[in-house]
Amino acid sequence: MPHTPSLNTASHAKPAHADSSGSPDPDLAALLDASPNSIIKMDRDFRIIYANARAIRVSQLGPDGAVGQIYWEARPAMRGTLLEENFLAAMRERTTRQFEFFHQQLGIWLDVLVAPCSEGLAVFYKDISASKLVEQNRDAAARRLQQAFDATP
């Protein structure tokens, strides 16, 4: 398995929901947990430094949210995927990336926004499986309709 090079060896980030003194900000943590998006924050070594409640649930990260783990160690199946490609590009280029991704391990479609931040990357994502199913059904119906139209003399 290829090793993703570290882009920064210093990993002394405070929690994403900490105030300037490094103490947890309960109001910010509550806001992030109330978000309709799953949110994960990683340092420049791709170490998870924060995961909101929705990210922990949707991504099945375990009760600690995999905080402190390198993302690729917590999710080795993500190596070589569109997700890894976009994480690396966002980190390297310091640009925001948005894309849809089918997470085979979880069996869900995700709309993903990866944005660089001072500590590394912020990843916002939501399950769009229901809308993808509607889209697939619509496309299948359109194909059937076109086939019926084409078969009509």
How would you explain this protein's 3D organization?
With 153 residues, the chain is an alpha+beta fold. 35% of the residues lie in helices and 22% in strands. The protein is built from 5 helices and 5 strands, in the order H-E-E-H-H-H-E-E-E-H. It has helices at residues 26-34, 53-58, 71-74, 82-93, 129-151, and strands at residues 38-43, 48-51, 97-103, 108-116, 120-127. It is elongated, with a radius of gyration of 19 Å. Mean pLDDT is 83; it is low at 1-23.
As a percent range, the share of helical residues equals 25-40%
Number of strands: 5
Strand order of the largest sheet: 2-1-5-4-3
Seen as an oligomer or otherwise, the chain set is single chain
Overall morphology: elongated
Rounded to an integer, what's the Rg over CA atoms? 19 Å
Which series of helices and strands comes N to C?
Answer: HEEHHHEEEH
Biggest sheet, open or closed, and with what strands and sense?
5 strands, antiparallel
Distance between the termini: 57 Å
The pLDDT mean sits at: 83
Low-confidence stretches: 1-23
β-sheet strand percentage: 15-25%
Count of helical stretches: 5
Determine the structural class based on helices, strands and strand pairing: alpha+beta
